[in-house]
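SAMPLE LOG
Freezer: B-3
Tube label: C17
Construct: single chain, 343 aa
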Amino acid sequence: MFWAEDIGVDLGTASVLVFVKGKGIVMKEPSVIAIERDSGNIIAVGEDARQMLGRTPGTIIAMRPMREGVIADYDVTEKMLRYFIEKAVGRHFFFRPRVMVCIPSGVTSVEERAARQAAIQAGARQAYLIEEPLAAALGAGVDISEASGNMVIDVGGGTTDIAILSLGGIVCSKSLRVGGDKFDEAIIRHIRKQYNLMIGERTAEELKIGIGTAYIKGKGAPNEGMDVRGRDLLSGLPKTVAVTSEIVVQALQEPLEQVMSSVKEVLERTPPELSADIVDKGILLTGGGVLLHGFDMLLTERTGLPVHIADDPISCVALGAGKALGMLGILQNAQSIAVRRAM
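STRUCTURE (predicted):
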């Protein structure tokens, strides 16, 4: 048996990261689970289940129970979370762990309650919720307890959270249901329109990572092409086409424009004193979505502000969730009550 440990969980749409106090990030797996259709038994979780997406027989369902940053299928999410917690700390512990779960800043009370209950049912002794921009800033090493403004943009798989932070809380924010998944969907739609070719989510993601860019004028912008395989919508037969980076840039215009418009909206609502701080410090980018080539350059062009990508943008939210358990007093006293507890 083991004593329970404090755990921070970034329960993301695309991936789940688990932070254990004293050990750091112990696990990073895709948010995918494969279950038997009739019995509900777990077949695979994480990377093994991701390999099954779109390739399962009728008796097995491979699915992503998180959609747009929130729980879409409660029972399956609970099973997945329990699996990850047990894998991180072992099945046998003397006390159940305290768990801090990250949520987008724009969730409803129903979505909050679902996240709390899923953590408790998955084996947490106490469950806390922290908004993703706060966790991201903490994980990136920002001192959010000062009376000074910090701007954080966290671009995840399902959501983009934009927030101005000061004195341990969120001053103003906006959460968009736009993230890496919407980038992939936009690529799928554009390829279908341009080539009459149906491709899957994994192929779209490979295109985004391989030749995608947000800023075609930037240094090192990819200008090569990729061979893409899919199903021809006219003949119904498998087909291969060569896709150039310009096509992917065109596909990404709409979701990127939504993000840029929301950033400007939050900046317009920022109090003048905090605006002055942000001019000095710039904007901090976290989340896997900011690794899209040229994202930081596009943001700099649109806002005129310096933009910095965190050292480890993908892990920031999980690291921050773990740190938050050690500073609950500061966070809970913040005016925004950014951290909430579930008994």
